Amino acid sequence: MKYAVIAPTAAGTTADPGWMSAWVRHVEACGFESVVVVEHAVVVRGYESTYPYDPSGRMDLPDGVDVPDPLDLLAFLAGHTTTLGLATGVLVLPNHHPVVLAKRVATLDALSGGRVRLCVGMGWMREEIEACGVDFESRGRRADEQLAVLRALWAGDHEGVDHHGEFFSFDRAVCRPRPAQAGGVPIHVGGHSVAAARRAGRLGDGLQPLGVAGDDLAGLVGVMRDAAVAAGRDADALELSLGHLVTRIDAPRAERLAEQGASRVVLAASAAADLEQAKDELSACAERLGLA
After folding, report:
1. How far from the centroid of its chain's Cα atoms is residue 204's Cα?
2. CB–CB of 61/43 below 8 Å?
3. What is the sign, positive or negative, of the torsion defined by CA atoms of 1, 6, 209, 167?
4. What is the pLDDT of residue 186?
């Protein structure tokens, strides 16, 4: 089992260089596999969209909290670590042009020595996606094409890549540097819908279902596996990342997640703004899991 930790955006500390550099070094020292960072290009005040992962329909983020760009934040964290994985969770894919995104992610992977995992989602906040100039209703079709563009540019040779789709078109495009990881950066799909699970099976390297458990979770995993088989892919090669809390996870709980098929547990850190408290919580978690 691998254990990742989500940077505590709600604590209001993720844009504090001193706090984050000390925190992420402690994450690595404790033996966690990776650090995960979230994305919102903008948070629209008074948004009317429904946040699907809380009964209130609202995000649990204080007004005006800093939400740094995820790739820039991961580049900063890469410079303060040596082996720790660097992951998004989730990057809102409709907010990004795939040609620019391919270059940014490949550069981060190359300079970090192949430590990047890209977890993408379709986004739930209509107002944010429309502020980025993208039609909300077609974001699923757009995402499928975006994933194809990323894969093609990372795999392309010196002759360049041609692509002509519904949303993007180019000829002889060469994207360098290539990712350090053979086969390109792994792409996981985050979300709670059947469409997300199907996309993970057809196009991704794994699924990170959000806010799903029990029979609903088993159903999504089945959808992912069936979609992979239908696409001629190896369903057993796909990863499943499930969520829990830094302050509550222990070995028996982790074992139950493993029984549900999890290969990774993505742990939400508490919103402790006090650095020493946050580090103590990580240390205690690592000890319960036998990591350190």
Report:
1. 12
2. yes
3. negative
4. 98
The partner residues of 19 in beta bridges, in order of sequence, read none
CA dihedral 20, 22, 27, 29 (to 10 degrees): 160
DSSP alpha helices (H): ranges in the chain? 17-29, 70-78, 98-112, 126-131, 139-155, 194-203, 214-230, 251-259, 275-289
Domain that holds residue 10: 1-89+240-292
- pLDDT tens digit sequence for 121-158: 999 999 999 999 999 999 999 999 999 999 999 999 99
CA 131 to chain centre: 21
Reported pTM: 0.96
Q: Is residue 275, in this structure, part of any structural domain at all?
A: yes
User: Hey, what are 230's tokens?
Assistant: 């239908």
The Cβ of residue 255 has, within 10 Å, a number of other Cβ atoms equal to 11
State pLDDT tens for residues 185-225.
Answer: 999 999 999 999 999 999 999 999 988 999 999 999 999 99
Query: Amino acid identity, residue 156?
Result: G
In a domain, 196, yes or no: no
